[in-house]
Amino acid sequence: MFRTALILSCLAAPAHTQTLGDVHLPLVPRTEAEAARIAAVTALTDDFSKAEAFEEKPAGAATVRAWTNADAFSQLSANMPFAHEMDFKLGNALFRKSWVASPSSTLGSDGLGPLYNARACQDCHLKDGRGHTPEGPEDRAVSMFLRLSVPAASSAEEIEGWIATANEPTYGGQLQDFAAPGHSAEGQMEITYTDVPVELADGTVVTLRDPSYSVSDPGFGPLHPDAMLSPRVAPQMIGLGLLEAISVADILAKVDADDADEDGISGRVAIVPSAAFGVPVLGRFGYKGGTGTVMDQSAAAFSGDMGLSTPLHPDPWGDCTKAQADCIAAPHGQEPENREGLEVDTLSLDLVTFYSRNLGVPERRDVSDPTVLRGKEVFYSLNCTSCHTPKYVTHRLTDQPEQSFQLIWPYTDLLLHDMGEGLADNRPEGRATGTEWKTPPLWGIGLTQQVSGHNQFLHDGRARNLLEAILWHGGEAKGARDGVVSLDTSDRDALIAFLESL
Ligand code: HEC
Ligand code: HEC
Known about the structure:
By secondary structure, this protein is α+β, with helices and mostly antiparallel strands. It contains 14 helices and 17 strands. It has one domain. Strand 11 and strand 12 form a beta hairpin. 51% of the residues are buried. About 3% of the residues have low confidence.
């Protein structure tokens, strides 16, 4: 598992390579016979009379038992060899570790900030589940934050279709709402909601809450007049290594950028530079596919969310900008004599990455229940599957037995879709426009209340139940959304029962 050293040696590779491949995976290439078998196994079913083979195991052999308590997302891949379990436990400890600001006598845990959003990964990814919106004016937005940027004339990024933006010149790439002693925080995220009633065909009225975002108490003067804000709630952590192990070719096969099949649904691929691999890779993580691998995302989180340096982002001040000179000059946690002169060394980053890859997906409940099967049929007939792709077979991998060659059921195509003005953050990121979002996986979604203690969905937690989440769908998903509005009560309940069984 300890691959960072090898990875870093690839940094010299040209960063503009446009050929997307599975460079991040230690894979055994597929034979043609295997590819044909996989295509047959992953084809959409048209038999809704009974559950499909292996459907109750969304993560294949990595699937874990569905615990009935809040620990349901905190189990390790069920097929993990015993020899890897210690790495998972060490990674878990680092994920939960609460960092402190420098200078501090606890040398192994200092370096936090100076600007930060949380002291531990686990503070946002609570119970390895999703975060939530603030519960009231006194609740600081710990498990949610605002990404920031401004439009730019050009970009040094050579990826085709890249939309030029730059970090907000003073505040950087995200709003840190906490600061070490002696420093000012960047400000607080403010949300106001407006009620939007939606009437369904059976007369039910659902009231959606439409959010708008601003920054109060800006610590470094007013934000740039063109600043673009994008709210993000921390997503659930399960099954990430399996999403990473899906073949690029299988994802590209679903791209229909110009909607050649005229179903109103296109789907575009996010392509992002990888700090870990030094070449552009497919963007699989983050709400707009902003990062390509679990390691890239984890290193970005150490830097942006907590102000901690790693081999991939060696600056100890994280997201502080030149305009925040005190922040850059502040004491940090990099002792040259230990930890490679980094706050988070190679081994620690590897362990956190290993942990983040290996949180097990719980088995389905009620797969054979007639209402759930009917709901599944509604899900397929309304074309939800054209973005929420049910199944894949992951690559055969040489040193990741947990992710290797599994039939998985994540319900995502990992592509970007225009979701309409209602959901738009109007803040482009990489190749993703201000109206595009990456289809999120739906596995585990029925356990949200149990694990996270709430039923908030979508990138900013605005939806307060699954039906609200669906009613927010617009743009390419407008047809599917309208289909749900038109359903009779029992089919709508069945659709929700299906989602709750995932
Ligand atoms: C301040 C809250 C916060 C903290 C702290 C935080 N995260 Fe996250 N995490 C998020 C948000 C928000 C996203 C979605 C990011 C985006 O859309 O760009 C995310 C996304 C991720 C993802 C990708 C998940 C997916 O399905 O796309 C991984 C992996 C991850 N975080 C790991 C970590 C690790 C490891 C740490 C600690 C080093 C950490 N996070 C700390 C909020 C946080
Ligand atoms: C055009 C692609 C597309 C189609 C079609 C589509 N979805 Fe989605 N779905 C998305 C995207 C993208 C998001 C994330 C939007 C966001 O976070 O703002 C999403 C989010 C969701 C969520 C919330 C997930 C979460 O983790 O918060 C649910 C539930 C959901 N979709 C169900 C459905 C159902 C049911 C249908 C069919 C009626 C459907 N979707 C059709 C793309 C699609």
